[in-house]
Amino acid sequence: MAAETQSIPTVHPAAHDEEEDHRDQLMFDPRPREEMNHMVMDAMTHTTPRYWLAVGILGAIVAVCLFGMWGYMIATGMGLAGIRKPVYWGVFIVLLVFWIGISHAGTFVSAILRVFKAEFRRPFTRAAELMTTFGLAAGALYPLVHLGRVWVFYWMIPYPNARWLWPNFRSPLVWDFLAITTYLLSSTIYLFLPLIPDLAMARDRTTGWRHFIYKTLSLGWRGTEAEWFRLRKAISIFAVAIIPVMFSVHTIVSWDFAVAQTAAWNSTIFGPYFIIGAILSGVSAVVTILIILRSTMKHMDYFIRPEHIDALGKLLLVFSMAWGYFFFNDYMVSWYGGYEAVRQILTLHASGPSAWIWYCMLIFNIGIPWLTLWNKKIRRTPWAMFIITLLINVGMFFERYTIIPMTLGHQRMPFDWGEYSPRLPEISIGIGSLALFMLLYLLASRVIPLVPVWEVQEGQEAHSLRKVGKTTVPSVAELE
Amino acid sequence: MAEEQYPEKWGMVIDQDICTGCQACVTACSMENNIPFTGEEEVAYGRGMHWLRIQRYWEGEYPEVSPTHTPMMCQQCGHAPCEPVCPVFATVHSESESINLQVYNRCIGTRYCANNCPYIARSFNWFDYEVPAPMNYYLNPSVTVRRRGVMEKCTFCVQRIYAGQETAKKEGRALRDGDVVPACAQACPVDAIIFGDLTDPNSRVSQAARSERGYTQLEELGTAPRVTYLKGGGTYGG
Amino acid sequence: MSEIISRRNFLKLAGLGATAAVLTGCGPAARYVTRNPYYDMPEYTQTGLSTYFATTCRECPAGCGLIMRTFEGRAIKAEGNPAHPVNGGKLCSRGLTGVQGLYNPDRFKSAVQRPQRGDPAVEPVEWDAALQVVKDALNGPAGEVAFLLGLNQDHLADLVTQLAETIGAPAPLRYGALGMFEGRATLVKAAEQVFGQAVFPYFDIAGADLVVSFGANFLEAWLSPVAYSRAYGRFRRAEPLKKRGYLVSFEARRSLTSGSADEWYPVVPGSEGLLAAALGKLLSESSGFSAVMDYAAVDVQAACAAAGIEPEKLEALAQLIARAERPLFLPGGNALGHADGLAAAVNILALNAGRGNFGVPGGVYLTTSPAGTATLTDLRGLVDRMRTGQVSTLFIHGCNPVFELPPTLGFTQALANVKTVVSFASFPDETALQADYVLPDHTPLEGWGYQYTLAGVDRPVLSGAQPVVVPLYETRATADMLLSAGKLPYKDEVEFIQSVLEDKVGQPDANISGTDLPSLWAKYLQAGGWWLAAPSLSAPEKNFADGASTAQPQAAGSGQFHLMTYPTLFGDGSGANRPWLQETPDPATTVMWNSWVEINPKTAEELGLHDDDIVKVRSEAGEVEAVVYLYPAIRPDTVAIPFGQGHTALGRWAERRGCNPAELLKVTMNEAGDLAFGDTLVTITPTGKRRPIARAESRVGVYGDH
Fold first, then answer.
1. Is residue C488 part of a domain?
2. What is the pLDDT of residues B85-102, one digit of tens each?
3. What pTM did the predictor assign?
4. Which residue in A9, A276, C115, C204 could disulfide with A469, CB within 3.0 to 4.6 Å?
5. Residue-range definition of the domain harbouring residue A166
């Protein structure tokens, strides 16, 4: 979009709007660097009683709902949760997939848009990357939460031990474990690299404990030409390198299911289907968070504008369609396979006691986005987008719910079919992990510069509007 | 001490024509293997710990409706779907008995094996099940009492296989057909469950497994079950 | 020998010694048994080795042989005695959970006195004082003592009979719900009419090639279920030169036995005798059947119409029977528990007589032991004596009449006029709750005894029972308590048992032999009893010629539905306190931990009922609330409630579960004096409440909607 250099040189209202879009997306109202620094620092250090109230409430929820409930469940047994024979995986695994999915978009928005030089990305890459890290932190809890004996979870780690036992590398759970760990590490590094100049900026403008933290974290950044050169190199290497990691992690999560012989899980399309689903839910989550940031944090309306949300809204529409395609593909191939057990499962998805979940999934993931996201006005209305993106995530939660407990409950032996419904631990820990995510984000918003100031400035410097014929188009100067 | 070789391949044949569905095997299995009872609430929610259950399906419409009984337990698959998915090798194939073992001490409770078992043969210890004293006196010392958070399943009464092997060794002879009888086959009043060594072509189980009525459960999955079922139904004189 | 101890070998080494020590370390008290039991010998104390005792299962009257595995003084597992002629190494669910009775935490732990009848609160009483109560009663006016025993034909029954004779008291009554549902007295009476001897017939199912069961649920509860199940297994299995047996069943609901049948005919309850007569008439027209009855008055069409079966089907069946080499006809309790039950039993036995299969493989034999089971009429006599104050002391052992008998018989009310009620129960059951003294007997696995096995075996068996563990609590053998009055010339229980065994000294052709009592006794304990080495039952004589009964099925009272009541895994209801029996799914419905009322789905639809709805089941005698189970294999005009649940006492696992159908049974007897429980009619009223019951089957998948 941003790189569009040829436009049809006619003047009509639509073209005019597009020009305005570009102006806003690319922030052609540059402010001095120092002012932007101040705005970011101000947003970071500005706390109200409401903020502390929110931190307090979220902290309490995390302590009670997440760790309290989890501790109680560890002490008592997994039986507190709603899982049963034959639905051995329930909402915990749904939430694992859900959070891993959410964490996808951070990297996607940042790395893919960076590699493809989608210039509108600049103000919100940091917010998205943070979402990846914290989403992973919330998601990585679940493989532990759902373990029957979590106190020996380290047996999944390949480490030398007296038993001479390694984990079973044939097990998708070990792949999972390795993939999630890899992704957590690499996305954290990827978050950290572009953060260094901003940390240095913060270092120079703070005192006390903050100064100490930024001093340590900014690794002595001075902004020399050599440092910039290496940083840019590192970022571009990482941006390219993390993309396959990102694709692999969700593919591997999908293999937890696709590799099993469980009917309606053993679908070859699950890898890309899960990735598309993850990106759809993740980009939705990015939009949700941007809207929240914009409305709650000082000065953020300068950096995050409806035009950005508009651009992301277009992306969402594309991904919703892609998801629809993969859903249909998975459904049709499974159905066409003609295996009786699968046929029964597909029938029960749409007509069983939990069929409303399946229909909600379709409405939230296909119906609502397809009907609304065509409309620019809606795309630019933050509250509308807030609701739509939230619903998409609910729909994606339902998608995983359909795939996991609703499928497990109706396998090949009808005598043993069983309905699953979550109980208190699932609900409590689910809320707790959402609170954990929000708490981490809330705390980070006051410690980490949420806007990569240097990237914004870089963009503003590199972009210009050029007249081509009768219209103006944005152009980008090659920086690297 | 050299590693001893036991060549036996243990197998089972269940004759559905003879099986009446009386549930004696279910109780026998539970009493032999220290399977905890869970109470009405839990068992109603599908948390029963039975290693062996009898699937009762109805066929036909009244008055031609008739039940079929399929005792279902771990099929001791040759290509067991539960084995590759366990991240910590808690469910493994034993080389000496050629059966599928669950190592309770190793299990961390991912429950993946149970999801991947097409026979839904596995039970999970949702809680620590207390057996009120003095009822714990009857717990079988040859079978581990499982704690919460681990998976369990039919072992073909592996403790009895060991006992049979030890007895045979002590008496300085090879194992004979009938030396090893799991609790279910021992109790079965109609003798519909036959257990023995499949490598011995003359054993009762081998002969029964060759029956033309024989089939294995979910054959299409290629799990190579070690349990053969003999189809039921017949006519007078047939 | 390699340096490394492999995991396997380590386990093996550990298995030999260490595991036992480690595992039993879990049990707090097990290792510190200080009392020395009678049988305790040094070799039994070896750590890590199991000791096996041969004894007899006394959970029901069948008398199966047990091999109890014990380990360091604890009973671990009940296994069948492979040498035993009744069960041949097999066991039913009930027997397998015997140890849950032995180690039941709700047991009486010592003799207790109950200040207030019906109040669970009890006070411990010294054994000396308790024995004084027994002695006083036995030394008092003999006519005022009454004994009520369970169905088991065991040493206690013999001893009490002797005791009653000696002191001049009325003979003990032996009664139980199982006998009631089998129509035991009716069967014996019919045998007397047809064969001339009042004994239990033994049916050689294994030798038959076609079995026609008239409501005989011989695979779950009838007479000797394990023995008959074993026989069924052999009957069904096709072997070289042996056909696969073919089972035909007439029963209103498809029970476990009918479920195994190749042909099942849901007939109107009570029409079995009529059908037997019709079948006799059809058969008497074929060759190979010499009618012992006059079938002239039988109208086949009318019989079929009354039974709700198409005449063509009955004719086809008659042809099948005519073709069969060794057909066998079983008179089950469901056919006998009707007003014309005796006639039905006679009609069915006469079919066997007609085919002449007496004393041949697949035929009928006569057992040798007397079958002194009380009828409900006898019991009503006792109740009348109690009510009129003629009984001052009532001794109750091995049965639970307050639970098992129809309340309309008035047993509980009559108890109020009995001065002293002494129960020997091990568990706090409903009857013990009404007893002034509970002097707990040893549970079967702790006590001595023997048991005659009557109905399910082809030879006389004196099945031996011995303690397999030290008595857990301060309990005493009931026999010892009764002997303490000094009325009989035996020092203790064991001496009495040995006196019975004395007859067998020197007797050849038995499984054990001994020239003197001590050696025979030792072998008796080791073998688990005494029995003849070969089948030795006599064949009945044909001495019967009478008209076939053509009594129409008659259900008493008014109501929409016939009520069927049948015993389950819980037997006479005393199994309800075994948690693993509760958690063993019911064979037909897979329900656990509860009872239910079976209704045909079509009927339920008409009544607007669904699974798990609670309904009021009302008969003339009473009403109960039960949970609906849609049972596809029951007549639409019949509902069925299993017997055994609905306890108001009996401990934590039994109480407040399901309903007791005995409350619906009206006290009407058949000609033999047995309860005509099958004639009960009930109405069903929805209550609007629901209670999901636990079942092993899925609620969705079974009926095939998807």
1. no
2. 999 999 999 887 788 999
3. 0.90
4. A9
5. 13-476
